Amino acid sequence: VIDPGYTKSISIIGGGSGCVITQSGSAKNTFEIGTTAVTRNLVMTGFSVSSGASSGHILVIGSGATGGLVSASINVEMTQLNTAKSILYCRSEMQHNSFYGADWSVALSHTVAPVDVSVAGTLFNGNRFFDFRAFNATATPFFVIANTNTTTWLVGNDFSSIQAEVCSGGLISITNSKAGMFSHIDMWDVGG
I need a labelling partner for 161 at 20 to 30 A (CA). Which of 75, 101, 139, 143 fits? Predict the structure, then answer.
């Protein structure tokens, strides 16, 4: 659990391509960030994460109205093998974060969105997902981003230079959003 409150910065830097964090614990999340207060200026790079068939989510952002993640830079390869858990699971604030430069993949028979965001109001804005590969979302879109408040908007989220492979469930489903950018997206081996 990474929950330092309003800390200026935190860095988790691995030793490169051979550095792997493997989560095999039953129903345990790999990283829980900003669960009771907003975490700011997080950097994660230089390693990969693999979550086992009975493990929890890989990256949980917040747990409700009090937590969140702001101004993070995350460049980590992530593989989720539990078909009922997400790579990124968010239920609270995410503002101005960058997720880039790595493969994000799930088991072929996945039943939930690999990126599952559900917030009320203007809590998911200015986030960038770019220059990475999304792999194996066959039952749902890879990104499901829902604003449960119909009178406000999610603003300025950017999805660019994404290679989606075997994503027959689609790539992006986003509700109550405006001023987003979708560019340079390739869909490979979509199937049926």
Answer: 139
3-state secondary structure of 6: coil
Higher pLDDT, 133 or 2: 133
pLDDT at 7 over 60: no
Whole-number pLDDT of residue 71: 86
Q: For residues 172 and 141, what is the distance between their CA atoms, to the nearest angstrom?
A: 6
Place of tokens 């550095």: 19
Q: How many residues does the chain have?
A: 192
Non-local CB neighbours of 141 within 8 Å, separated by 6+ positions: 113, 167, 169, 170, 171, 172, 173
Query: Nearest CA to 48 among 10, 129, 103, 100?
Result: 103
- DSSP secondary structure of 161-178: EEEEES-TT-SEEE-SEE
69 CB contacts (<8 Å, ≥6 apart)?
33, 34, 38, 39, 40, 42, 61, 62, 90, 93, 94, 95, 97
What is the average pLDDT score of the chain?
A: 88
